[in-house]
Design brief:
globular; 4-stranded antiparallel β-sheet; 763 residues; 42 strands; alpha+beta
Length: 763
């Protein structure tokens, strides 16, 4: 166990800057301002005083505690019963060999203490031992000898393991298991994955247990995206976390900010060099000490023209997750300051989801935070109303959105087109919420008037799934109405993934797609659009893979369990009628745990690339971020950077309608300004695909504060524009495009139990 200390210099754990063989380095906070230092000290105190046995993800420390208990326990049965607990923590902390030894010791020791291992327990032990061996293979190959195709589903070519002892032993165990339990679909899934790692799928998989390759075939050829993160200098090791891709310094190039849910892990900031590479500027930006954070979202909260960032902490930890969030103000000089406390946002609740929106139309962004209540540990959601001076007042109860629920995703959108943004909340513990913004109550119609929201989810038909996670609000069918996409998040067994691919029944929760009917209600069109599937998404964001003007999406999949090695799922929107699975054709099906996703035109070439944070929750479940370069599809585009004057400066909530001329006639393409869905943040400038448009006839922008529609003409396709509210014409932006540097052919990944290490320089 290591502790963080504040002893004259600012010391924090750093994913790349501070870890070497698992030891934290001491980094002086040369540029850290007072607010950052104060928050860092607060976070370090939480780490120092936390009871590791109440945090199921502090696995190294927990393993040490259990070993101590075993050493002093005099009762042989109690000592024996501690062995599976120890094995679990050893596996999760990066010692699968030790976990195997503990499991075997448990099995061998049963008779000596007069105990019998029941058949169900024996099956579970076989599963765990197979997973231990798969983890050994993963550590020796995907991590230590990482390539751009490591863990890319279906595994082949550069992803095939060079060291094969682990998966070979896993195959032996799983084969024996299936000979006794022929319907064990969990073992079937792991067996097929194990053969993939050896390059022997499908040929050598026993026919009775083969998952046929045809079930993984894409429904459309989206062309393969290639991971160029290593060449760009963005190949960062870490755990589950958040990301924001946006232009933080106003130079026209998109920068990247990352966070990791591991509370001791330093968040990181990378500035684009405008040449296909990035330079880390974490220390120079004054961010040393800002640690932890499962998700982040951005907006210009104080209307000063610079994009700020909110970091969200404490998710999934219940009572142990009473962490503060951080509001990082962009100072416009390359540095950030933590203004959480002075802005009135300091509170201590477990959360990972929030949304910026101007609920009262005063031109200042407000903030809704969905907190996680579970059982008797109650954390009501919060709504912070902007006071118009950079500070906020909490008012959730007063307006009726102080929800006591396990909130996992939130989206703000004007679902009924009445000019006021509503809220959709996904819940992990029951029915979802749709809060209609009813506006001010009484005679006072001002921004600080008594406001009210009403939950109309049941009447609108959008309560399901009853256990859900990320959600998105967007106009997926280009009819001018905002639809809802929400992912189910309840897995009975990874075997249900096999059942879904094979068309067999299963009990795990599915996704839902709700099409807006325009009358305050929605149609459940999940089956109609081809999304009646088990996706098990932890993250979700939407963009346009092929610039055809229809919004697609990518779902980052998984759960903390090491057995849940399932591919990310990519879906293409086919003319607003259905979604096509393009996971394998696009090379987008990573098997590692998928978290924050950003669709962003990183290289300013007009098509959207995909940046993703990949990694799990347990101490050893680290992986690397990916930057997937769009191969291009020959379609047209336009990018609009909106600037509100009376409306909020970020233009969040502004509705865009691009009218284009095509060979078949006129067509309308709709987009609402946001950073995307509820996990991962895309740029606030709007990157809009135009398909094979012959030209742009006009652009209509509905501004949320004034309710006025600005009509612009004379725009050309394949250009960047800045649009200021009320101006007669847009401003053409001459942004330079560049080529993203190719990936390094082969490079080292995390070692030493999953602790990240320094990377070689990009070539």
């Amino acid at each position: 166990m290591f502790m963080l200390k504040l002893i004259g210099v600012f010391c924090v754990t750093m994913c790349c800057l501070g870890f070497s063989s698992g030891v934290a380095a001491e980094i002086p906070a040369l540029a850290a301002k007072a607010g950052v230092q104060k928050m860092a000290a607060r976070l370090q105190e939480i780490v120092r005083t936390e009871d590791v046995m109440k945090n199921s993800f502090r696995n190294r420390e927990r393993a040490a505690v259990i070993k101590g208990e075993i050493a002093v326990e005099t009762d042989s049965v109690k000592r024996w019963l501690l062995l599976p607990r120890l094995a679990d923590e050893e596996l999760r902390s990066g010692d699968p060999t030790g976990a195997l030894a503990s499991y075997e010791k448990f099995e061998r020791g049963a008779a000596a203490v007069g105990q019998t291992i029941q058949a169900k327990q024996q099956l579970m032990l076989r599963h765990e031992k197979a997973i231990c061996n798969l983890r050994i293979g993963e550590r020796q190959n995907c991590l230590t000898n990482h390539t751009i195709e490591s863990c890319l589903f279906p595994i082949r070519k550069l992803g095939v393991y060079q060291r094969q002892e682990g998966p070979r032993e896993a195959i032996r165990i799983l084969t024996e298991t299936l000979q006794q339990h022929r319907s064990d679909l969990k073992a079937v899934w792991l067996l097929n994955i194990a053969y993939m790692t050896l390059g022997e799928y499908p040929e050598k998989v026993p026919p009775q247990w083969l998952i046929p390759p045809r079930v993984f075939e894409s429904e459309h050829d989206i062309k393969p995206f290639v991971d160029v993160a290593s060449g760009a200098g963005l190949d960062m090791p870490g755990w589950a976390g958040g990301c924001v891709v946006d232009d933080f310094d106003g130079d026209g190039f998109l920068d990247v900010m990352l966070s990791s849910w591991e509370i001791r892990s330093q968040m990181r900031f990378f500035r684009s060099n405008g040449d296909g590479s990035f330079t880390e500027r974490t220390k120079e930006a004054g961010l040393i000490g800002e640690i932890g954070g499962l998700n982040m979202i951005q907006a210009d909260y104080n209307n000063d023209g610079w994009t700020d960032v909110l970091v969200l902490r404490g998710a999934w930890l219940g009572a142990a997750g009473r962490y503060p969030n951080s509001l990082l103000r962009n100072n416009g000089d390359g540095t950030f300051e933590d203004v959480t406390e002075e802005a009135g946002l300091l509170s201590f609740h477990p959360t990972q989801t929030a949304v910026w929106f101007d609920f009262n139309g005063d031109g200042w962004l407000d903030l809704f935070i969905g907190n996680e209540s579970y059982g008797s540990d109650v954390h009501p959601s919060e709504l912070f109303r902007s006071n118009g001076d950079g500070t906020f007042t909490e008012c959730a109860k007063a307006v009726g959105v102080d929800v006591d629920d396990y909130i996992k995703g939130v989206a703000a959108a004007d679902f009924n087109n009445d000019g006021r943004p509503d809220l959709y909340l996904s819940s992990r513990s029951g029915a979802n919420f749709l809060f209609r913004n009813d506006g001010p109550q009484g005679s006072d119609k001002g921004p600080k008037a008594a406001w009210r929201f009403t939950n109309i989810a049941a009447a609108a038909g959008v309560t399901e799934p009853l256990m859900s996670f990320p959600t998105a609000a967007a106009d997926f069918d280009n009819d001018g109405l905002m639809d809802i996409l929400v992912m189910g998040y309840a897995l009975t067994s990874v075997g249900d993934v096999v059942a879904d691919y094979m068309g067999k029944p299963f009990r795990s929760e599915k996704a839902r797609f709700f099409r807006n009917k325009g009358d305050g209600t929605f149609t459940d069109a999940t089956k109609e659009v081809g999304l009646d599937k088990l996706i098990l998404a932890m993250s979700l964001n939407f963009g346009d893979y092929d610039n055809d003007g229809w919004l697609d999406f990518l779902a980052g999949t998984g759960d903390p369990d090491f057995a849940t090695v399932i591919p990310n799922r990519a879906f293409r929107n086919a003319d607003g009628k259905r979604f096509q699975d393009v996971t394998t054709s696009g090379g987008l099906g990573h098997l590692q745990k998928g978290h924050a996703i950003s669709f962003a035109d990183i290289d300013n070439d007009g098509d959207q690339d995909v940046f993703e944070v990949i990694g799990g929750a347990y101490a050893d479940d680290t992986y690397r971020t990916s930057l997937l370069k769009n191969p291009g599809h020959g379609n047209h585009w336009v990018t609009l950077k909106l600037e509100g004057r009376k409306s909020n400066r970020s233009a969040l909530g502004a509705r865009i309608k691009v009218n284009v001329k095509t060979a078949a006639g006129s067509r309308a393409i709709y987009k609402t300004v946001s950073s995307g869905a509820s996990f991962g943040a895309s740029p606030l400038r709007q990157e809009i695909g135009l398909g094979q448009a012959l030209g742009i006839e006009s652009v209509e922008i509905f501004w949320p504060t004034t309710g006025e529609t600005q009509i612009l003409q004379g725009l050309s396709k394949n250009r960047f524009y800045s649009v200021r509210e009320g101006d007669a014409a847009p401003v053409l932006l001459n942004l330079r495009s560049f080529t993203l540097r190719p990936p390094l052919e082969k490079y080292c990944g995390p070692v030493g139990g999953g602790f990240p290490v320094s990377l070689p320089a990009a070539k």
